[in-house]
Design brief:
111 residues; globular; 5 helices; 0% strand; 61% helix; mainly alpha
Length: 111
Amino acid sequence: NIMMGMGMLAFAESLKFGESMGLEKEMLLNTIPNLPVSAPFTKMKAELIRTDQYEPQFPIELLYKDLHLAGITGYEQEQPLPFTQAAKELFGLALRDGLGREDMASIYKVF
């Protein structure tokens, strides 16, 4: 779940970055998930973003919990997880904004 959360963040951030440079959202939604470096699940998440419908497949509140527990376990094992902690905080912003029960793809709205 650590990798899935980070992959979702990378996808959402890349999408917003492309849009900020004047690239068409539709083109980005068709291109980014098909890149060799993109996680396969981004194809499904692209459809949620495209339709602005975030019916939960994996709610943000559960991903946030998993990232939090990973951080605790990392602490207990004396294994720093700096990127996991950063991801947790970004999903925490989504929780703060009332997106906890929406699919993790709704993190796109936070960027």
